[in-house]
Amino acid sequence: TKVEVARVARALFAERGYVATTISAISAESDIPAQTIYSAFGSKAKILDKITELWMVEAGTTRRPSAYLDVPD
Q1: Count of CB atoms situated within 10 Å of the CB of 20
Q2: Fewer beta carbons below 10 Å: N end or C end of the chain?
Q3: How many Cα atoms occupy the beta-carbon half-sphere of 10 within 13 Å?
């Protein structure tokens, strides 16, 4: 559910902007009740945090630091 909400929110943020996108709009587009979204995230800022987290995984940025740490001095 969180990934689906983040996916839909990301598209809406890109299309409408962060401020103009409401939890109600995310709810309508994702077909997930607004109350469920509030329960899962608590706020629109937390949805943005999840979007950032997912993007970092997609971009591989979470693997790179650990790879550098594994290299002996």
Answers
A1: 10
A2: C
A3: 13
Tokens representing 29 are 């587009």
How far is C-alpha 54 from the chain's CA centre?
A: 6
Q: Does the pLDDT value for residue 70 go beyond 80?
A: no
Q: What is the 3-state secondary structure (H, E, C) of the chain?
A: CHHHHHHHHHHHHHHHCCCCCCHHHHHHHHCCCHHHHHHHHCCHHHHHHHHHHHHHHHHCCCHHHHHHHHCCC
Q: What is the pLDDT of residues 1-45, one digit of tens each?
A: 999 999 999 999 999 999 999 999 999 999 999 999 999 999 999
Q: How far apart are the first and last CA of the chain?
A: 43
